[in-house]
Amino acid sequence: MSTASDISTAETTESRIWGAAAKLFYDKGYHATTMRDIASEVGIKAGSLYNHFPGKQDILLRISLQTTRELHEGAVARLDGITDIEEAIRAFLQWHVEFHAKNKLASRVADGQLPALSEENRLAVLEMRDAHEQLFRDLLRRGAAELGWTVADERVISFGILTMCTEVDAWFRDDGPLTAEAIGDMYADFVLRGLRGDSS
Amino acid sequence: MSTASDISTAETTESRIWGAAAKLFYDKGYHATTMRDIASEVGIKAGSLYNHFPGKQDILLRISLQTTRELHEGAVARLDGITDIEEAIRAFLQWHVEFHAKNKLASRVADGQLPALSEENRLAVLEMRDAHEQLFRDLLRRGAAELGWTVADERVISFGILTMCTEVDAWFRDDGPLTAEAIGDMYADFVLRGLRGDSS
DNA sequence: GTCTATAGATGGATAGAC
DNA sequence: GTCTATCCATCTATAGAC
After folding, report:
1. Per-10-residue mean pLDDT, chain A, length 200
2. Domain containing residue A159: CATH number
3. CB of B167 within 8 Å of any CB in chain A?
4. Does A68 lie in the same domain as A20?
5. Are A93 and A188 in contact (CB under 8 A)?
């Protein structure tokens, strides 16, 4: 079984290419990364990459699609059985932050390199990402309905919250002072206070 | 005098190149944009671009540096004379949101295309961006000191807040239902509630 | 599966006429 | 300032030997 945390620890040549590409796309972007760069990172020659992937575009697609799917499916799984709405939002945000921290390379590539995907490929990734965002907007709506929150604009606020949590993939460091879980707690606390809107 | 809103309305060939490049870098990214693309958008040939800029890298540098400088200097100007800390934070965030909404092309290029800048050029832009972020962290610290806010981690929270407001440049539309000012209000309200932390 | 070699296309930048 | 023409480097992808 492949889980999110496997992403950087697998062992086949295909998965080593996957990981090398994710790292390079993260650092330099898709167009600035060459097939020679990727091959070099893996320790093979550029031509050999084509024994594992049909082309460069396909490497990006697989990284983006797989990562976005794992993000979304993981969120759905985390919410299973949770009925309290604040608890659900907390669980969602913690998962979202932890995933982006622990899979920072692939996660940031998955949405930062969207313009580098072909139209068809981009739509496939966006469809999955939209489902994930919709899941969160539904939670926001439930909170407003059940707890009387006044969310100024559901779309604007949800974009803001998700972006804040997503961006962790830009600065998180495994060897930093904070764990992914601790950061998830901080953001969940901050967001829930903002949503409750006790004063204004 | 050049203000932020002039960015897309100037008339010299140089400024038309500036605007065309910002649009293309925004849509496709620096490396996916060719000098021929930029020239075509302006209505000239690629070779003619070199009468106005020494090269492609320099076009990106000027967009990034000028935009980041205007963002920062505008914030400093907005804060002038404001002593109340909540009012100051509100003013800062409103400016930050409005700037990114009204200069969405150049703003997004300025920090999304940082990896495409040479080491030296990137450091110049980052220095200015860091000054801007530091300004906000100082406000956060003042709020914590003066009003007893409990900010879990100043750096993590400030990154989150700024990212939320910056990302407006990814989805704002001039012809959308919300003005930049309205969005700035929403985020400032949300953030200040989260900072006050009335309940937890 | 790996490699070397290369085809074929494209892009940044320059030269020089106007 | 504009243009056309082109150099030269580089990149993706393929061919074919091992």
Report:
1. 48 97 98 98 98 98 98 98 98 99 98 98 98 98 96 97 98 98 98 82
2. 1.10.357.10
3. yes
4. no
5. yes
